[in-house]
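Running this now, will post back.
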Amino acid sequence: MKFFRLDLLTLLISLFILNSCKNPSGVGLGLNPSTQLNGAFIDTATIVVNTDTEARVITSGLTKTPLALFRDPVLGTSASSIAVLLNLPGSAAYTLPTGTIIIDSAVLVLKYANGFYGDSLTSKYKVNVYQLKQRLTSAQSYYNTMNWDGIADKTNLLGTRTFFARPNDSIQIYNIITGAPDTLIKVPAQLRIPINKDFINNILFNASSNQLASNVVFNNNVHGLYITLDPNGTTGAGGAFMLGLSDSLNVYYRAINGSTIDTASASLMLSTHAAQITHTRSPALTAAINDSTTSNNVIYLQGLAGTRIRIKFPYLKNILTTVGSNIVINRAELVITPVPGSTIPFPAQSKLTMYTYDIAHQPIELQDANSGDPRSGGVGTFGGYYSAALKSYHFVITGYVQDLMNGKTVDYGTFIAPVDTTNTTSVDIAPTPQTAGRTIAVGTDKNSPYRIKLNIIYTKINK
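Update: finished.
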């Protein structure tokens, strides 16, 4: 009975307390409707997009230089050839070995860098090497429009090789050791092109002492090499390789001194290099580039400094008129989706960038990509990477949209373009030939659920 009375007493006290709460909804702070914050979502902001050609780019001194012949079934054919300077072996001067020199072989070594794009399964590639009739100079910047093909001596083929794309497979080669047995070693993936031995004799072993006394004289006489993919010998769609070009032309020879025969090697290092890039565009791509008056239903982003997208948001200020002038943008996200089926067999470009022009029409970072802007969430938040799961690209451009809407920034031109994935610490905004991928995306096609969208989450502030 003791426990029963305790339970009954507890029940009566509880009922008394609850009964005294006449207005349970009054717990906490009251809300004043005139100052209440109301969140809302918009995904119908008007967007205008047009395919635009990239500005010309400097291709000398690149860390990755493209060697390409890619026959894109939608965009057309893109090609990139390379001009490279040869330096004397060793130091600035070269001393000929004693005895009789017999060249066993000469090989131009080109190490692959990350970034191959194209057909690595069925296409067969043929690379040709010629001598340049004009030298490169490190004091000059060379653009992708430089006509190295016209400066090459096409009458004398110095080297050629037919190969398949294996940019990630290491290979085994013999390491030539002077005075000791040669050894077999494994080296990173590389393209090895046999070079004519007579050419090596002419520029090196049979050259004048004056030519071998300095790199300047050597360069003035030899000029350099022109490396290109042969369109007649390259089958299928082809592709684009990225080369590091911190390589050499390796010469393997025997030095005969009386009864003594020894194997040795000499390496002519590659130095100054540049690329010539051409695009033979398809009718569809040409029509899209020429149509700058209406927003495109399909947009084209092409690597190797091919095409970019110009994007406009002409009616953002109308949102202020419709909703009210006191708006805070919580999040603005631009969503770009490739045309369904366009990523097979060639995948979508793995990363895009977005930037704007200043008053001098020079590229600058968007507010959301600029680490100096407090609204920037950093590189990872800004986005631009292709999501295989979502099948789309996402850019967070909250600060940029807020400033456009409030008239704090002027749109002198805003662009989306392919960009290399190497840099992960900042947002690249300069046009680049160091990526070869492409994306065919849905533009402002109102009949497509995949059309480009600007999703805005905002808060209206009532004063």
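Residues 1-37 have pLDDT under 50 and may be disordered. More later if anyone needs it.
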